[in-house]
Amino acid sequence: MAKVSIGLRGWRFEESEIFTADGEFKALEEIPKDPRERLVRLTYLVESPCDACYLEHGEEHVERARPATIVYGEPHEEVLLCDQHEADFLYWYREEGGAEFKGQPEFRDEFHEWFADGGRAPEGYGGMEHVDTDPAELPSPPSQQEIHRRLNENFEGREIDILDYADDEEMEAYEHEAPDPDRDGHDHEHSHDHDD
What does DSSP say about strands 79-81 and 70-72: parallel, antiparallel, or unpaired? Predict the structure, then answer.
């Protein structure tokens, strides 16, 4: 079956993995882990500014940044780009050693650093040839509210742990930062003993 972009170009999904035969989004639990993670992540990325524009204009003039149309990289380490800055990214990736960071946590930061230091594609450097339909015709990913609704539907009386949808790195960070309720409770009682 064909591959399709959703919301932003770059990440491609097998239609059969995310759509029903009627062309509707499948329930999240029916979508394989990797495409599900990308789909959920897209709900946060659609309508975000282009990273390169953001670096040029800064937070104080973020309204000048063009909206991203393309996403490269892995979820949470992705680079978001507008059509005008895609060639800069591709030049960095192909000619300036960016490919060595593919799949690495520093992928986004390395591009940002190169771009912020004045890295740009030479005049006329070719971007990607996208075989594309009109972007307005691309299906939109479910909204964050819709994702939340889908996570909770068909689970009557059962608690959903959103951490089930987190990857291993996110899980380790959570476990490292999560407070110990027993210790906190003990400290709290102990402080009351001194107040009496």
Answer: antiparallel
